[in-house]
Write a structure and sequence with these properties.
Layout: E1 5-8, H1 19-25, H2 48-57, E2 63-68, H3 70-79, E3 87-93, H4 103-120, H5 122-129, H6 136-139, H7 144-155, H8 159-168, H9 178-183, E4 188-193, H10 197-208, E5 216-221, H11 228-231, H12 233-245
Parallel strand pairs: 1-2, 2-3, 3-4, 4-5
Helix pairs in contact: 1-12, 2-3, 4-5, 4-8, 5-7
Length: 248
């Protein structure tokens, strides 16, 4: 029997973001909404650690855990705090492993300021957020405008909850987890879009580290940017299947 699959979405998304990937996998993947997202729009994340603990508690035994961006950061933190064997494999898509001080404190303050903009005008914030160079490739996709409109509609339901959660789950409130990732005995794949130069460099640096384990791999998907699973879902699924098939 195949391992259970858990897919965690990114900031401003929801579990439904994974529908195309989940349909192609055809394995009954679990795609939960994170706090303040999707159907949980009134739930506020109390802290990064609290949210990671919640994810960890709900992981099925022997699962293949996949996370994108925010979901990847929570997936990484959760995988590091569960007993061996709970997570069979870890896939981190466009995921930041965390910052060291004082960069962490600068980011925490920056995201706290940005959260005020979410609370006051979520549409203006999201339009500006997705205008960043990080999403240049995503903006060229036919589905981009529909996705953004959906996210704006969801954000308007409880902007204060979303704002508080955005600040709480900031990279500035996340421990630096790069060393722990390199030490963890969990087969791990880092997926990036080749057009996402920032996160491709982060992933390359981890894989090239002298402390990197042999079971830490990287896949760069061509013609994709930061959001690989929405930009090129078939290539994303192919990468997952190849990774899982290679596990002992």
């Amino acid at each position: 029997m195949s391992a259970p699959v858990v897919l965690l979405h990114g900031s401003f998304g929801c579990g439904e973001d994974w529908r195309e990937v989940a349909d192609q996998l055809n394995c009954g993947a679990v795609t939960p909404d994170l706090p303040a997202h999707g159907a949980r729009f009134e739930d506020v994340a109390l802290s990064f650690d609290h949210a990671a603990d919640e994810v960890a508690r709900r992981l099925p035994e022997g699962c293949d855990l996949v996370g994108y961006s925010l979901g990847g950061r929570l997936a990484l933190a959760a995988a590091l705090r569960v007993p061996p064997g709970r997570v069979r494999s870890l896939t981190l898509e466009s995921t930041h492993p965390g910052l060291e001080p004082p960069a962490r404190e600068r980011r925490r303050r920056h995201d706290l300021e940005r959260s005020a903009a979410i609370a006051s005008d979520p549409e203006a914030f999201l339009r500006e957020f997705y205008a960043a160079p990080l999403f240049e490739s995503f903006r060229t996709r036919p589905r981009f405008e529909a996705v953004i409109r959906e996210r704006i509609t969801r954000a308007r339901r409880s902007p204060k909850s979303l704002a508080q959660t955005f600040a709480a789950l900031s990279v500035g409130n996340q421990p630096a987890l790069a060393s722990a990732l390199l030490d963890a005995e969990i087969p791990t794949m880092l997926i990036v879009g080749e057009r996402d130069t920032k996160y491709a460099a982060l992933a390359s640096g981890l894989v090239a580290s002298p402390n990197a384990r042999p079971d830490l791999a990287m896949t760069a998907v061509s013609a994709a940017g930061h959001n690989v699973h929405l930009e090129r879902p078939e290539a994303f699924v192919d990468a997952l299947r190849a990774f899982w098939e290679g596990l002992q």
